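FW: tagging you since you asked about this chain on Friday. Here's the raw sequence from the shared folder, copied in full. Didn't touch anything.
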Amino acid sequence: MNSTPLLISSGDPLLDRRHDWARGLIERGEAAAAAELLRDTLSKAPGFIAGWFLLGQARIEAGDLEEAVQAFRKVIAIDPDDRLGAGLRLARLGEKNVPGAMSPTYVRTLFDQYAGRFDRELVGALAYRGPALMLAAIDAVVGEKAYFPRVLDLGCGTGLMGAAIRARAGELVGVDLSSKMIAEADKKKIYDRLAVDDLIVFMDADPAAYDLILAADVFVYLSNLTPALLRAAKKLAACGLMAFTVETYKGDKVILGDTLRFAHGEKHLRMAAQNAGLDTVWLESVSTRMEKNSSVEGRLAVLRARG
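HL: got it, structure written out here
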């Protein structure tokens, strides 16, 4: 999912308007002119984060990747929390060992902006069907009448997965980085408990054990699946299940796509499950959503804890 980056004001309305003009120039294919305007703007407001970020985008469009790298590095130097996702752009430009390329603050900012229109755009415009596919896979593994006394919904967002599993769950717990997404989920009165937290931090601190852990289109924001699956394995009751979806590609490892989401190869997925001590009992190719009028290639996995 993509969103227009949060505009962090320069503090000067005239310079903010210049930023808007530069964005318009880029959209019209005049990236070099946009970069020139932004350079002048930044000479007057050197701490203007959104200006540096847009300069990086302009230089990419103009084919000057080295200056783009410098601009995105400047964003992170000014804003180490990286609210705008400059680390992801650096990773796409080939920078190695970008610290925290997918920063939690970036993900939180992205979804805080998106929360109010999330259901409408994801389900309506992008034909999202992840929860239905996950529920069907769970049914195929344990039967349609299976009941789960305790269920944890990782990256629960506005509650789309929670709504799908509610009738099959006893206690239903949801966790998400975005407080605004959690607020939308709370309105639906689906969950018994909701928490605003990082999913790994939450699993490390929560003393409960769960019969089913779900992660619908959440792991596209994690590069390495092993840490999350290791935590999930510790949280699962004996023979408990974990179901999740990822985006994928034809290779074996993990790549950062041009959508700025991670795609996980099948080998990485299977090895992460194995390293966590979870058995892969279901793995199929699926598409949970559309992107630019094309189906996004993905996989759906159901893992079982040993017991």
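FW: The domain at 116-305 is CATH 3.40.50.150 (Rossmann fold).
HL: agreed, and Residues 1-6 have pLDDT under 50 and may be disordered.
FW: great, closing this out.
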